[in-house]
Amino acid sequence: MLTQSFADAVAEAERIITGAPHILTEADLAEGYDYLAGSIRASLQLAWAYQRDFPHFVASTGPYTKLGLDNPDALYFHSYLRDDAEYVVTGQRGTTTDLSFQVLNGDYSPVDVPDSLSAFDDRAITIAADGSFELRFGPGEPGPNYFTLAPGSAMLIVREVYSNWDTERRGTISIHRADRAGCAPPPADTAAMAKRYTVAGKILLSRLRTFLAFPEWFYLREPVNTLTEPRHTPGGLASQFSSAGHYDLGGEQAMIVTVPAAAKSVAPYQGIQLGSMWYISLDYINHQTSLTAGQARACPDGMLRFVISERDPGVANWLETTGHRRGYVQIRWQRLTRDLGPADGPQVEVVPFASLPDRLPYYGQARVTPKEYAERIAARQAAIASRMPG
After folding, report:
1. Rounded Cα gap, residues 52 and 176, in angstroms
2. What's the per-residue H, E or C state across the chain?
3. Model confidence over 286-300: pLDDT tens digits?
């Protein structure tokens, strides 16, 4: 059978899922099978999108193809490259807080993070008055809106990041190889189809193994119920810092995360999110499992105080664990104008749930009614529907 290699990979992928060490409950396993379904879908899409001569941008992750603790505030797109060819990227700048570009020398693997060969945001490019832009990536000399592809360049990633889901609007972006405009690839035969199914299987297995191993490098070695000081995101953007950790909370416990609300002049984007032990975001559409600084309610002292818990504390900055006793926490700052230090980072306290009124400064100002909270969820659902690819 032409698809046998992919079928074998799916069977091996199921063994990876069912053998994951963090599975403790039936819910953990069910979530793993859901993660597997999204990974299968993504792997097939990526195998067919592996077109370095006739490239196009594909969604790297989305609500149904999650991986790598995906940021609910970001749209991720990527395209494959050859380091000896020239590519033209055209687009229309939207109103999102950040638009960034990154060139990698490969893909993530279970043993390595690819080198970031180039990373910049739209402050480094010239954008026309109408918001349009044209960039070139190739082997030539760098210049205005021309970026040299270093040896080994293999992938271009574009991130569009929202701070306000309701008012900011996405832009457009496309890519083509400069010397192939107006041409077409040869039709695929059955040998090409067989190769694509084989590639899809390899992508699937690498994807699962990589992002089950990834937390061991950057999260699980830290003490539980703590967050690191702000640091450059490993393998990430030059203008991004992050603070990472993992939590383990009983039903009668809550974690209070206190972090300064960054000045817009320092970090136009600041956000916090929760993730499952599968190293993917929790349901951010129907539950408040993430908040940007713009969505959160700041305290009068300029601090953001988030409550991570299973039970509803009745406060605006509740981050729902949605049945996940264990999971990951990440704070990101992007489009930075300076490096961050310990004073910019979070403080963490685990407290009895019942003590929250006494442990939260400005508790009265933080309160929301069930009706107000439901309105917040409805706004999330509407905003995702208007901007997020499937």
Report:
1. 9
2. CCCHHHHHHHHHHHHHHHCCCCCCCHHHHHHHHHHHHHHHHHHHHHHHHCCCCCCCCEECCCCCCCCCCCCCCEEEEEEECCCCCCEEEEEECCCCCEEEEEEECCCCECCECCCEEEEEEHHHCCCCCCCEEEEEEECCCCECCEEECCCCCCEEEEEEECCCCCCCCCCEEEEEEHHHCCCCCCCCCHHHHHHHHHHHHHHHHHHHHHHHHHHHHHCCCCCCCCCCCCEECCCCCCCEEEEEEEEECCCCEEEEEEEECCCCCCCCEEEEEEECCCCCECCCCCCCCEEECCCCCECCCCEEEEEEECCCCCECCEEECCCCCEEEEEEEEECCCCCCCHHHCCEEEEEEHHHHHHHCCCHHHHECCHHHHHHHHHHHHHHHHHHCCC
3. 999 999 999 999 999
Dihedral sign for Cα atoms in the order 296, 300, 306, 309: negative
- State the amino acid at position 249 in one-letter form: L
Looking up tokens 């040299």 gives 148
Q: What is the per-residue pLDDT for 111?
A: 42
| Per-residue pLDDT reduced to its tens digit, 376-387 | 999 999 999 998
In 133-146, which positions are buried (b, 16+ CB within 10 angstroms) versus exposed (e)?
A: bebbbbeeeeeeee
CA distance 98 to 163: 9
Residue 118: predicted pLDDT:
81
Q: Please indicate, yes or no, whether the overall pTM of this predicted structure exceeds 0.85.
A: yes
Strand partners, 320: 309
